Amino acid sequence: MSPGSVHGPGAPAPPDEPRTPAWRLLATLGSGGALAGLLLVVVYQLTLPRIEAHKAEALQQAIEEVLHDPARFDTLYLNAGQLTRELPAGADPRALERVYLGYDDAETPVGFAITAAEPGFQDVIRLIFGFDPKTGALLGMKVLETKETPGLGDKIEKDSAFVSQFTGVAAPLQGVKKGAGKGKPGEVDLITGATISSRTVVRAINRALERWRPALAAYRERRP
Amino acid sequence: MKKTTPAADFARGLWRENPVLIQMLGLCPTLAVTNTVANSIAMSLATLFVLVASSFLVSSVKRLVPNQVRISTYVLIIATFVTIADLSLEALVPTIHKALGAFVPLIVVNCIILGRQEAFASRNPVGRSVLDALGMGIGFTLTLLLMGGIREVLGNGSLLGFRLFGPRYEPWIIMILPPGGFLTLGFILLTYAWWRGRAAAAARTRELAARTRAPAAAAARAKAVS
User: Fold this and answer.
1) To probe the interface with B, which of A5, A45, A121, A125 has the most B CB atoms within 10 Å?
2) Is the ipTM of this complex over 0.85?
């Protein structure tokens, strides 16, 4: 390809000035970097409240979705292996792990909403799922954050046939190739073309349940 | 010297120097994110914004930047605009940002943008640079739409999410997988080259015909005068 067609019309590049002092190069890059950094800090600070508000709103919607519109839900913090409704004195609420307990209109607990995260095909997949300890079955699943391949891996959140399988399925889950299931409880059909992503969802839920089960069981026993 | 009207600056990127089809730049996003039309639109609009903003800034500061550090400065400018676009999208339109997800940060490494800074914006006035960036960005958009359209229709049986065929249509999964990107781009380039070859041949024929006709016409004119 001729250089003209790429460079377009215009003056040729200025010849290299052999004696540009080093301080000028440093000053250009340094001030450019400082300006860019300053600009980014400003934009970050300006956008942060709205981004956090969106995230909180999305989380609340997700909790309501996976617990099927509870009348209300409580946040339970994990402190020293125990779930507590009240924050321990002096504890930073952001530092503690938590689950959300939903209640129906008659104040009966309907189940827990638990967040989970596992590295997927591209990046960590974050999701939330509802779990009913009485029946040992899932109530629903929603992906909160994913960078999986658009068109393939993102089916873990966009393919309703895949997502709806997580409603009513018994834990622990087992991912099976589509159509290869033997009808056992806990079987989840994986997505063709997104095996790693869909397997990650199954693994994330199983691991989270394994980790939370003792605390959830203990909490149930202490209820009047 | 080519003509340098504003219209020519703008139109160059659309077809004659289309960034993907002719310059073969920006092939990574062209292949990676064109598996649906919606992704193509989002990607090309974000690229268009970064391209125009960077071209404007690079053209404005071109006298201040020493030649030796120009590429680093351009990359800095581009990365800053990409991050601003990413954060603003997340704050203003969280649903679209979620759909774009991984694509937006990838714009930093789109060589169309760096290529236009180095080849055009750094040596031309601001107005012409912005026009050039607009043309190149729209040329990129058109190509991505073409790719996304072909791949979504064949690979998913839908266009912009609307199903086109009946339930018995078996989608060609391969078309939305990476090989489908290479196949589609290959066939588009093949068609384009064939079309250009034909156009060039036709132009040659016309020229030859004109050359053989010219003396005869001159002779006829001479006869008429006498």
Assistant:
1) A5
2) no
DSSP B149-174: HHHHHHHHSEETTEE-S-TT----HH
Summarised one tens digit per residue, pLDDT across range A61-76 is 999 988 888 888 888 8
Q: What is the 3-state secondary structure (H, E, C) of B53-64?
A: HHHHHHHHCCCC
* Residue A112 CB coordination number (10 Å): 27
For residue A21, the model assigns a pLDDT of 86
Cα–Cα distance between A32 and B75 in angstroms, integer?
11
pLDDT in tens, A88-127: 677 676 777 888 988 888 888 888 999 999 999 988 999 9
Chain B residue at shortest CA distance from A5: B17
Q: What is the pTM of this model?
A: 0.70
pLDDT at residue A37 is higher than 70: yes
DSSP A120: -
Strands B162-163 and B158-159: antiparallel
Q: Which residues of B43-56 are buried (b: 16+ CB within 10 A; e: fewer)?
A: bbbbbbbbbbbbbb
Of B80, B120, B177, the CB nearest to A36: B80
Is the distance from CB of A200 to CB of A122 less than 8 angstroms?
no
Q: Does A20 lie at the interface with B, CB-CB under 8 angstroms?
A: yes
The distance of A162 to chain B (nearest Cα, Å) reads: 17
Q: Are A188 and A173 in contact (CB under 8 A)?
A: yes
Torsion of CA A214, A219, A220, A223, to 10 degrees: 160
Q: What is the dihedral of CA B127, B131, B136, B138, to 10 degrees?
A: 140
The structural domains of chain B, with segments of one domain joined by +, span 6-200
A190 or B6, higher pLDDT: A190
Give which of B86, B50, B103, B97 is closest to A44, Cα–Cα. Answer: B86
> At residue B139, what is the residue type?
G
Determine contact, residues B54/B81, Cβ cutoff 8 Å: yes
Task: Determine the Cα–Cα distance for residues A140 and A44; give it in Å rounded to an integer.
Answer: 34
Q: How many CB atoms lie within 10 A of CB A172?
A: 14
